[in-house]
Amino acid sequence: MAMRIGLNLLYLIPGTVGGTETYAAGLLHALAQVDKQNEFFVFMNKESAEWPIPQAANFTRVKCPVKAVSRSQRYLFEQFCLPRMLRKHEVDLIHSLGYVGPLWTSCPAVVTVHDLNYLAIGHTMPFGKRYLLRFFSVQAAQRAKAVITISSYSKSVICDELKIHPNKVTVTHVGPRWNDNFISQDVVSKTKASYGISGPYLVAFGGGALHKNIPRLLQAFAELKKELSHKLVLIGHLPPDVNPGELPEGVIATGYVPTEYVLPLLQGAEVFVLPSLYEGFGLPVLEAQQAGLPVVCSTAGSLPEVAGEAAVFFDPYSVEDMADKIARVARDPALRGELCQKGLANVRRFSWEQTARETLTVYEEAVKIKRW
Questions:
Q1: Quick one: 189 and 303 in the same domain?
Q2: Is residue 296 situated within a structural domain?
Q3: What is the CATH number of the domain that holds 361?
Q4: Do 94 and 145 lie in a common domain?
Q5: Nearest to 82 by CA among 69, 97, 66
Q6: 193 plus 47 within the same structural domain
Q7: Do the domain assignments include residue 180?
Q8: Tens of pLDDT along 188-215?
Q9: Both 141 and 227 in a single domain?
Q10: In CA terms, which of 46, 57, 255, 362 is 20 to 30 Å from 225?
């Protein structure tokens, strides 16, 4: 029997929430591709009112009069107004895609808890944000009929820390960015030129989060410059603990990069580096492997699970180990070629279509629980 499914995207601030935006985009487009029977009602805030959702007959955008930038207002709306809207649209199930959902609903609830970063890196968050996120995400997970997470590592942490039975938590691995079109060498060259990039370079993602471990990467790169001619390109904003005026020689910080320029910048590099202190999944690893790059990354969180045998790993707390492993890959063309081939094979383990089908199974089981 067809269901009326609500998708709660009230958390979404385009261009700001990072991996959870990629998750929403990938999942929605894959659901539209594989499911023509169920109806989907996508609840959006003011910031994401025009964010692109699938142009499918069974997808309806529901604009909500609340701004996600005000976390407290959004939480209040989510708890007291969203349940009424679910009844109005006769929703059979609500899936909250970003950690937090309404605690009291007339229909079964599913919540995606990507990780428990407020435990691992909570000291880097403002107290108010950390407290609210912890309270509402814990309550949403415990009250939901089912919890979805994106790695086995995250599942083990969620079950241990939140005291949730493993049978209630389903792992649905995600895939690389939805738009994986081939990029010509001409486009790569023009993109590099527009950012002032010439010669061989390493590439990494910056970002505002402190757990991205960019200061140690910069220290490692400063050591590498003694033996390598490569530059280091940091895609995205610099974190608050990095002074733009004190970057080592050879570092290019791009600032914000439009989505269509990310893949060309990846494809033009020789090595991708992910130095994070914590990752609930590590989607950039798949994006780099999909772009044909050898990956050097930390052993933190779920990264060994996601990268598999297609990466060289280092201790993210050791600048010396980081520099050693990066140099090893950068100096060895044969190793880079081997990692590229293994990476392309590894990416094939992950797809958004598979994510969507597994998610639909979670919906069906959650609705059955209510019917029982």
A1: yes
A2: yes
A3: 3.40.50.2000
A4: yes
A5: 66
A6: no
A7: no
A8: 999 999 999 999 999 999 877 788 999 9
A9: no
A10: 255
Domain residues for 315?
185-347
User: In three state form, how does the secondary structure of the chain look?
Assistant: CCCEEEEEECCCCCCCCCHHHHHHHHHHHHHHHHCCCCEEEEEECCCCCCCCCCCCCCEEEEECCCCCCCHHHHHHHHHHCHHHHHHHCCCCEEEECCCCCCCCCCCCEEEECCCCHHHHCHHHCCHHHHHHHHHHHHHHHHHCCEEEECCHHHHHHHHHHHCCCHHHEEECCCCCCCCCCCCCHHHHHHHHHHCCCCCCEEEEECCCCHHHCHHHHHHHHHHHCCCCCCEEEEEECCCCCCCHHHCCCCEEECECCCHHHHHHHHHCCCEEEECCCCCCCCHHHHHHHHCCCCEEEECCCCHHHHHCCCEEEECCCCHHHHHHHHHHHHCCHHHHHHHHHHHHHHHCCCCHHHHHHHHHHHHHHHHHHHHC
Token reading at 372: 């029982």
**And the tokens for 73?**
């207002």
| Both tokens assigned to 63 | 């604009």
| Token pair listed for 226 | 């003694």
State how far the Cα of 35 lies from the Cα of 37, in Å rounded to an integer. Answer: 6
Pair (165, 102) in one structural domain: yes
Nearest residue to 20 (alpha-carbon basis) of 128, 100, 129, 120: 100
330 lies in the same domain as 360? no
Task: Look at residue 372 in the predicted model and tell me its pLDDT.
Answer: 43
Strand pairing report for 59-63 and 271-274: unpaired
The pLDDT tens digits for 28-84 are 999 999 999 999 999 999 999 999 999 999 999 999 999 999 988 999 999 999 999
Task: Please calculate the CA angle 151-157-161 and round it to the nearest 5 degrees.
Answer: 150
109 and 171, same structural domain?
A: yes
Residues 115 and 224 in one domain: no
